[in-house]
Amino acid sequence: MDALDRVVKPKTKRAKRFLEKREPKLNENNKNAMLIKGGNANATVTQVLKDMYALKKPYGILYKKKNITRPFEDQTSLEFFSKKSDCSLFMFGSHNKKRPNNLVLGRMYDYHVLDMIELGIEKFVSLKDIKNSKCPEGTKPMLIFAGDDFDVTEDYRRLKSLLIDFFRGPTVANIRLAGLEYVLHFTALKGKVYFRSYKLLLKKSGCRTPRIELEEMGPSLDLVLRRTHLASDDLYKLSMKMPKALKPKKKKNMSHDTFGTTYGRIHMQKQDLSKLQTRKMKGLKKRPAEKITEDQEKKPKRIKKN
Amino acid sequence: MEGPSVEELLAKAEQDEAEKLQRITVYKELELEFDLGNLLASDRNPPTALRQAGPAPEAELRALARDNTQLLINQLWQLPTERVEETLVARLPEPTTHLPREKPVPKPRPLTRWQQFARLKGIHPKKKTNLVWDEVSGQWRRRWGYKRARDDTKEWLIEVPDGADPLEDQFTKRIQAKKERVAKNELNRLRNLARAHKTQLPSAAGLHPTGHQSKEELGRAMQVAKVSTASVGRFQERLPKEKAPRGSGKKRKFQPLFGDFAAEKKNQLELLRIMNNKKPKLDVTRATNKQMREEDQEEAAKKRKMSQKGRRKGGWQGSGGKRKGGPPSQGGKRKGGLGGKMQSRPPGLGSKRKGGQHQGGKRRK
Predict the structure, then answer these.
(1) How many domains does chain B have?
(2) CA atoms within 13 A on the CB side of A289
(3) Looking at the domain assignment, is residue B131 inside a domain?
(4) Residue B88 and residue A238: Cβ atoms within 8 Å?
(5) Which residues of chain A make contact with B74, given a CB cutoff of 8 A?
(6) Best B38, B64, B91, B101 residue to mutate vs chain A (most A CBs within 10 Å)
(7) Average model confidence (pLDDT) for chain A?
(8) Residue A248 sits at the chain B interface (C-beta within 8 Å)
(9) For residues A204 and A200, what is the distance between their CA atoms, to the nearest angstrom?
């Protein structure tokens, strides 16, 4: 509770910075992920978690010890971990006879579980099994979702949103075009989700845009959708709420025409043109004596014209 | 001179362009949806080629990935670029995919007492320098904090003021005054916090931490809150249109101590009659219900055993079905307490019974 945090004031600047990093903000931090092993995790699941950690570095924490919890039954221990390590994404791996090679992918809102999706790993090829060069850690991957299944059911839509959240990395304004190195490709087909990661090779084509060749690099998983624990509609809506300050501001009084010209509108008050303030030149200022003589001169002039 | 005509030139130029772009064009039935801020592309085309492939569609997946990546790269290369420290950098647009936040939107803190006063009076904070010249030490020192410029507790010589007691310790007096000021400041800070949180946090009892509950839960929390007073909710006012809570009275009702003499006499005589009876009183409906339940349980256990062992005699099931055909006529007479239990079971049992009868019939044949 932030009230308690503020009753006990931090005694050092470092503690203050630590707390400021964790408090709710308008523009949020990058989401951290925690990778947890269940009480009965086997070698496959452990290797999957290690590979995912390699993909998510430095925005991930890999817990080395086994934690005997069941996410779908009791979420308190996950919430405790999330609060301690300030992670809002988690991946929990376990294995038992009923659910072999189980992976629970989830995210939190306000340190409480928002969505949880259980996936079964059918086939797994690890990073170290594919012998070729890898890309440096911390690169922002490109994400591609293929297959119309991702929009049909609510489960798949949430899964897509969860995968984007998990793998997208930090939000940046600029990106180095040569630094686009790897791509994660998700295909939904016949109830399975195929997760493949490829390294990008840019080849010369006739024009500026290069031709792409792919080389399989990283972990490849065949996933099956098992149980889900999705947030209720209104909790989800609450979590999606954007603060007013961040909403894109509509620019008013500007319009474009088809030729590309931009028109702007200025609203003015009604002006009395006789009292318009023009430039004052002090030397030309009329003195009272001169005014009278001018009037007298003006009159004969008028007569002459007539 | 008849050179190549304009149309032919244009056509040739188009052909050249097409050839150039051949290497990077990809044909798709449905256009992909791009979210360049997240480097994301969504392909809505149904994966027909993949469906035809076998169990390990690696090559097809790779081909699909290559095509989709090519389209995404084409889009990315269209973005405006600039040179930042010798590297070519593309400016990404804002991400359009709306993802949930990890923490709730920060609520603006209510103003403190001083801030409200300052706003009222139109007082603005003056910009002050960080360092102040300290005559005593002859150097620039902080305005406040560690080793500050004018710290009156650190003076080594204090003149005793005229009206003060000569035996009083002036140094401790200054330290005490400082402590009192610090305590007062802390008190005010806590008071400001309390005032701020009184408006933000309603009572946490019975309410979900994320502020998100169903109507029934909220109703229950409200009821509990109503009853949590010293008089157990008896003198709580209700809102104008709020209905009285039903069923909140005592569950046990006792007869008044003296009142209806005739009823009391009747009850006592009835009690004596029952006690004098040598035979136990049998409640027929209760007995039959109990018997039925036992029979059903036995049947269920036997059926489970049968299904485990495999198909066997079905003959006795027919007779069981006939037996079960009897009791439903008594359904109307069942008592309330048992009736509740039995009501939930018959629909399921009914279907089982029917199934049993059918099975019995087939097997007999």
Answers:
(1) 3
(2) 0
(3) no
(4) no
(5) 209
(6) B101
(7) 87
(8) yes
(9) 13
Question: Which residues in chain B are contacts of A198 at CB distance < 8 A?
Answer: 62, 65, 69
Chain A contacts of B22, Cβ < 8 Å? 206
Q: Which residues of chain A does B98 touch, with a Cβ-Cβ cutoff of 8 Å?
A: 240, 242
Helix axes B284-309, B315-325, angle to 10 degrees: 160
Q: In whole angstroms, what is the distance from residue B113 CA to residue B189 CA?
A: 10
- Strand-pairing partners, residue A119, are A103, A225
- Find how far residue B192's CA is from the centre of its chain: 30
Tell whether B10 and B82 lie within a shared domain: yes
Q: What is the pLDDT of residue B231?
A: 87
B299 within domain boundaries: yes
- Say if B34 falls within a structural domain: yes
Residues B196 and B265 in one domain: no
A223-273 residue pLDDT tens: 999 999 998 888 999 999 888 877 777 888 888 888 888 889 888 888 888
> How many CB atoms within 10 Å of residue B33?
14
- Residue B26: which domain range? 6-90
ipTM here:
0.79
Q: Beta strand B40-43 with A211-216: parallel, antiparallel or unpaired?
A: unpaired
B225–A contact, CB cutoff 8 A: no
Which residues of chain B are under the pLDDT cut of 70?
1-4, 199-212, 246-250, 310-365
For residue B346 the two structure tokens come to 């018959």
Contacts of A211 in chain B (CB under 8 A): 23-24, 70
State yes or no: pLDDT of A80 exceeds 90: yes
Q: Does B69 touch chain A (CB under 8 A)?
A: yes
pLDDT in tens, B232-283: 888 888 888 887 776 666 677 777 888 888 988 999 999 999 888 877 777 8
Strand partners, A188: A193
Helices A154-167 and A43-56, packing angle to 10 deg:
60
Instruction: Assign domain A29-238 to a CATH class.
Output: alpha beta
Out of A7, A144, A173, name the one closest to residue B65 (CB): A144
Q: Do B43 and A206 touch (CB under 8 A)?
A: no
Query: B236 lies in a domain?
Result: no
Distance from CA of A203 to the nearest CA of B (A): 10
Secondary structure, 3-state, chain B: CCCCCHHHHHHHHHHHHHHHHHCCCCCCCCCCEEEHHHCEEEECCCCHHHHHCCCCCHHHHHHHHHHHHHHHHHHHHCCCEEEECCEEEEECCCCCCCCCCCCCCCCCCCCCHHHHHHHHHCCCCCCCCCEEEECCCCEEEECCCCCECCCHHHCCCCCCCCCCCCCCCHHHHHHHHHHHHHHHHHHHHHHHHHHHHHHHCCCCCCCCCCCCCCHHHHHHHHHHHHHCCCCCCCCCCCCCCCCCCCCCCCCCCCCCCCCCHHHHHHHHHHHHHHHHCCCCCCCHHHHHHHHHHHHHHHHHHHHHHHHHHCCCCCHHHHHHHHHHHCHHHHHHHCCHHHHHHHHHCHHHHHHHHHHHHHHHHHHHC
B190 touches A: beta carbon within 8 Å = yes
Closest C-alpha among B52, B53, B47, B84 to residue B67: B47
**Residue A84: left if φ>0, alpha if ψ -120 to 50, beta else—which one?**
alpha
Helix H or strand E segment including B69: helix B58-77
